[in-house]
């Protein structure tokens, strides 16, 4: 059995140090060679304008969408979101022209960037097509009415769900929702997200339930959690909905539970670094309408569009898939964003997390 991964550290990670930034930059290949610019202006070669690039994590950008990028654009894929988040710093000061023109990140990573390093993306007309729930995310949770321009295009909404492997007994108890995580039969067979804040949200920050949840857990792992489940080392995992939708369609061992009481929510965002070429707005809009929309939702990528539009896109698909991708409005209303924490709240949650560590006496 592989060694389970234990990744959570702090509730809300601090900004990367300069050393970490340089290390990630090297891994990301974002030097001149990584950007495909080796030789430009060197050895007597004539300087050329670099092609605009979209930088994304491999698991966070649908191939069907990136394949229709406008001519002249290039997609660069990396293994870790941290590598994407450091792309602007990796280009170096005074080298803004070498930065990616677009970044794909989750809202958790995007809110760690300096707002001054970003420029508004999209148009009012494009953002007006989205559900009002996307408004705060587009502002990266800046207060409404403070004049902050939308800095992100929230193109997909992604609730966290519970996935079970060969556990029809628990699947039949789906109305219990997140309470299933505490079932004694899952002790040592549960994979949770690597974010302590997410884990705490699953039990509504209740200290007693959090202690029990931590005793259940085999590993905290976003990247490889599904592999532990598929290989049989775990029987349950909490994952973003999109990652499991393709598997549900071909693996009968898996059952998905989207708790009716709601739960934590993440977003897929596109961002534009300051000074980058204008974003291809027509391409952004393609994700919101047929025929591309139907292909995206079938693969688990659900834009925050009005319900009727999503119902039409999902009409050809089985009821099980439709109910997972577009649950009732009452359920969607209970999903909760996780905006950045003020220092005092971050410390409170850190204390709660530390106090619930397995083996630590209860207070």
List the helices and strands and how they pair.
Layout: H1 18-28, E1 53-57, H2 63-66, E2 74-78, H3 81-85, H4 87-91, E3 102-106, H5 107-110, E4 118-119, H6 124-127, H7 135-138, E5 152-165, H8 168-171, E6 190-192, H9 196-202, H10 207-216, E7 217-220, H11 225-230, E8 236-240, H12 241-248, E9 254-257, E10 263-273, H13 281-286, H14 292-298, H15 307-314, H16 319-325, H17 329-332, E11 335-336, H18 343-355
Parallel strand pairs: 1-2, 1-3, 6-7, 6-8, 10-11
Antiparallel strand pairs: 3-10, 4-10, 5-8, 5-9, 5-10
Describe the structure.
There is one protein chain. The chain is of the alpha/beta class. It has a domain at 18-157 and 268-311: D-Maltodextrin-Binding Protein, domain 2, CATH 3.40.190.10. The chain has helices at 18-28, 63-66, 81-85, 87-91, 107-110, 124-127, 135-138, 168-171, 196-202, 207-216, 225-230, 241-248, 281-286, 292-298, 307-314, 319-325, 329-332, 343-355; strands at residues 53-57, 74-78, 102-106, 118-119, 152-165, 190-192, 217-220, 236-240, 254-257, 263-273, 335-336. Strands 1, 2, 3, 4, 5, 6, 7, 8, 9, 10 and 11 form an eleven-stranded mixed sheet that branches. Residues 1-10, 12-18, 20-47 and 92-97 have low confidence and may be disordered.
Summarize the structure.
The chain is α/β, with parallel strands linked by helices and 363 residues long.
């Amino acid at each position: 059995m592989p060694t389970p991964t234990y990744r959570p550290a702090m509730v809300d990670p601090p900004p990367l140090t300069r050393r970490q930034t340089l290390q990630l930059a090297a891994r990301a290949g974002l030097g001149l060679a990584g950007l495909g610019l080796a030789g430009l202006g060197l050895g007597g070669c004539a300087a050329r304008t670099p092609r605009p690039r979209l930088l994304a994590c491999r698991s966070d950008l649908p191939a069907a969408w990136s394949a229709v990028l406008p001519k002249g654009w290039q997609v660069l894929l990396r293994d870790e979101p941290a590598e994407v988040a450091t792309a602007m710093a990796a280009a170096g000061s005074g080298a803004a022209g070498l930065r990616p023109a677009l970044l794909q990140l989750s809202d958790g990573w995007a809110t760690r960037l300096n707002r001054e390093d970003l420029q508004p993306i999209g148009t009012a007309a494009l953002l007006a097509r989205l559900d009002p729930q996307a408004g705060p995310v587009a502002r990266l949770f800046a207060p409404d009415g403070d004049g902050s321009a939308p800095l992100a295009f929230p193109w997909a909404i992604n609730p966290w769900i519970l996935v079970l492997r060969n556990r029809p007994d628990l699947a039949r108890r789906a109305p219990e929702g997140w309470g299933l995580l505490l079932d004694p039969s899952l002790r040592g067979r549960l994979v949770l997200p690597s974010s302590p804040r997410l884990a705490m949200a699953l039990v509504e920050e209740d200290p007693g339930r959090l202690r029990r949840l931590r005793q259940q857990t085999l590993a905290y792992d976003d990247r490889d959690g599904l592999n532990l489940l598929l290989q049989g080392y775990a029987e349950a995992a909490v994952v973003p909905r999109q990652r499991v939708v393709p598997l549900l369609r071909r693996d009968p061992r898996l059952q998905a539970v989207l708790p009716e009481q709601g739960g934590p929510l993440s977003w897929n965002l596109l961002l534009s670094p300051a000074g980058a070429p204008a974003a291809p707005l027509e391409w952004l809009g393609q994700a919101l309408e047929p025929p591309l929309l139907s292909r995206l939702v079938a693969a688990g990528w659900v834009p925050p569009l009005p319900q009727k539009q999503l119902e039409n896109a999902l009409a050809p698909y089985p009821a099980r898939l439709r109910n997972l991708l577009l649950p009732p409005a009452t359920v969607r209303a209970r999903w909760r964003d996780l905006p950045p924490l003020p220092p005092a709240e971050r410390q409170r949650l850190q204390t709660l997390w530390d106090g619930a560590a397995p083996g630590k006496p209860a207070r």
